[in-house]
Amino acid sequence: MNKYLMLTLLATSTLSLTGCAQMFPAQATKLENGNYMIQTTSNILGSNEAMENKVNKKAETVCAGKGFTEINNNHQTHSQKIYTAQVITTGTFKTFNKTIKCN
């Protein structure tokens, strides 16, 4: 296999995997103390602001429009190895978590 074809396959695979998870819907988990953890996940192209807006919208829904108080939040970027057809590459994704208390 020539070098150009191999690079084309690698670039296509990487771009295909990059588009797999633009941004997942925010999820809410009720904690033991009555608070909620709201979280969302995005690929590296998702903006932190868009992720936070998605979490805030979910928090408003969970609190039935009564408002909420933010207890803490956490933006993180993660990397993991992706194994495809004799090629190892790194995929990167982001998470945003916010713990809230409904008013």
TrEMBL record:
It comes from the Bacteria. This is Lipoprotein. The lineage of its organism: Bacteria, Pseudomonadati, Pseudomonadota, Gammaproteobacteria, Moraxellales.
